[in-house]
C-alpha cells in the first residue's frame, strides 16, 4: 500500500539511532518496550543502558533482588512496570527455560505485557505481522484519516487496531511498526507538527480541513483526587532516621518512604504535633518539629495529586529501629522522596 511505502521511506531517512534498534534479541526489545511505556525516549534511554549494564541477560535480571530492580528504576515512575519486569524475568527463566515466547499470542500471557508490547516484540524479533498501536500511532492515524472516535474508548481501541493491521507492510512488519511510532514521535507531534514538510500532507484529512489541533479525540478522565501527605523525617542524636516499606497494592508498592501522616487538608505545626502524639510515634519523648519546605510540594500522579510537606523531627533517640542517615541512598524510594533526600543532603 502507498501509505506504508511512504512511511518506511521516511523512516529510512529520518530514524534516530537508538541502542535497542541495534538488536533483535527479545530480552533487549522487551526491556526497552517496558521502559518506554509511559516514558519518553530521552528519559528512558539512560535507564535502558543502566539495566543492560547491570543485568545483561534475562537470567541476571531474574536472580536479582526486587529491591535492586526498584532502586535502578527509581525516577521512572509507574513502579508496577519494574515489579512486573522482575516477575516476568523469573517466569521466563524458571518456567520457560530462559526462552521468550516467539509469537504475539504467547507474549500476551506475560505479566506486564499488553497488546502494544506483544505486537512490538513479535514483529521486531520474530517478524510476525501484528500492528502496534500506541499514542503516536493513534495520533498519526486519527489525523491522516480524520477519525473522531475517542482513542481511549473500547470502540476506538478496536477501530485503530484494525486500521493499523490493514495498513501494515506484510513483508516488513518490524520496519513498518517502528516507522509509524517514530513518525508520531518526531514528526506528527502533539503540538506544532511540521505539516508543510510532511510526506502525507496531500492526503491528510486533518491538515486539509484544519483539524490538526482537534485530533486525536480523547475522553476526559475523572478529575484527579487531592491528597495531603505529611512525611516525618526523624533525625536522632546518634545520626539515624526512619524509613518504612510501603505494603499493599497502592502507589509505590515495596518502595521506602518516611513515616507518613495523611490529612484531609494542609495542617500547621500545632495540628501536626497533636497528630504525632495521637499516632503514638513519640510516646511522650521530647522532640522538636519544623517544616522543611515552606511551599507545599505538589506531586502529580495519574489519578491523584499529592500536596506534600516534609517535617523534620529532631529527637534524642528513636523508639523503633532506624537506619544511619549515610545509608539512606541504598534504599529504593519514590522520586518525590528521592528529590527531598538529595535536597536535604543528609
UniProtKB/TrEMBL annotation:
SUPFAM superfamilies on file: DNA-glycosylase, Nudix
Keyword Iron-sulfur belongs to the record: yes
Residues annotated as transmembrane: none
Cofactor or coenzyme needed: [4Fe-4S] cluster
Tagged with keyword Membrane: no
Function (record text): Adenine glycosylase active on G-A mispairs. MutY also corrects error-prone DNA synthesis past GO lesions which are due to the oxidatively damaged form of guanine: 7,8-dihydro-8-oxoguanine (8-oxo-dGTP).
Name the record gives this protein: Adenine DNA glycosylase
Species lineage: Bacteria, Pseudomonadati, Bacteroidota, Flavobacteriia, Flavobacteriales
Amino acid at each position: 500500500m502507498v501509505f506504508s511505502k511512504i512511511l518506511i521511506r521516511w523512516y529510512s531517512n529520518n530514524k534516530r539511532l537508538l541502542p535497542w534498534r541495534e538488536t533483535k534479541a527479545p530480552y533487549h526489545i522487551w526491556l526497552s518496550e517496558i521502559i518506554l511505556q509511559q516514558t519518553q525516549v530521552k528519559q528512558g534511554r539512560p535507564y535502558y543502558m543502566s539495566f543492560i549494564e547491570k543485568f545483561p541477560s534475562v537470567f541476571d535480571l531474574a536472580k536479582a533482588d526486587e529491591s535492586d530492580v526498584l532502586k535502578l528504576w527509581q525516577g521512572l515512575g509507574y513502579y508496577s512496570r519494574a515489579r512486573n519486569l522482575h516477575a516476568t524475568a523469573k517466569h521466563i527463566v524458571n518456567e520457560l527455560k530462559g526462552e521468550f515466547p516467539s509469537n504475539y499470542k504467547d507474549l500476551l500471557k506475560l505479566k506486564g505485557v499488553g497488546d502494544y508490547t506483544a505486537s512490538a516484540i513479535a514483529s521486531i524479533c520474530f517478524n510476525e505481522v501484528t500492528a502496534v498501536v500506541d499514542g503516536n500511532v493513534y495520533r498519526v492515524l486519527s489525523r491522516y484519516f480524520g477519525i473522531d472516535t475517542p482513542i481511549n474508548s473500547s470502540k476506538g481501541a478496536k477501530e485503530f487496531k484494525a486500521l493499523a493491521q490493514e495498513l501494515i507492510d506484510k513483508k516488513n512488519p518490524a520496519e513498518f511498526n517502528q516507522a509509524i511510532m517514530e513518525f508520531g514521535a518526531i514528526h506528527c507531534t502533539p503540538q506544532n507538527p511540521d505539516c508543510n514538510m510532511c510526506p502525507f500532507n496531500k492526503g491528510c484529512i486533518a491538515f486539509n480541513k484544519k483539524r490538526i489541533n482537534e485530533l486525536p479525540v480523547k475522553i476526559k478522565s475523572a478529575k484527579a483526587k487531592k491528597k495531603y501527605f505529611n512525611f516525618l523525617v526523624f533525625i536522632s542524636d546518634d545520626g539515624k532516621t526512619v524509613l518504612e516499606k510501603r505494603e499493599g497494592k497502592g502507589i509505590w508498592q515495596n518502595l521506602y518512604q518516611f513515616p507518613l501522616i495523611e490529612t484531609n487538608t494542609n495542617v500547621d505545626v500545632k495540628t501536626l504535633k497533636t497528630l504525632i502524639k495521637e499516632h503514638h510515634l513519640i510516646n511522650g519523648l521530647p522532640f522538636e518539629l519544623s517544616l522543611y519546605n515552606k511551599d507545599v510540594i505538589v506531586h502529580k500522579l495519574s489519578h491523584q495529586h499529592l500536596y506534600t510537606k516534609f517535617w523534620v523531627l529532631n529527637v534524642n533517640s528513636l523508639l523503633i529501629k532506624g537506619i544511619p542517615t549515610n545509608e539512606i541512598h541504598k534504599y529504593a524510594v519514590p522520586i518525590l522522596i528521592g528529590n527531598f533526600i538529595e535536597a536535604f543532603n543528609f
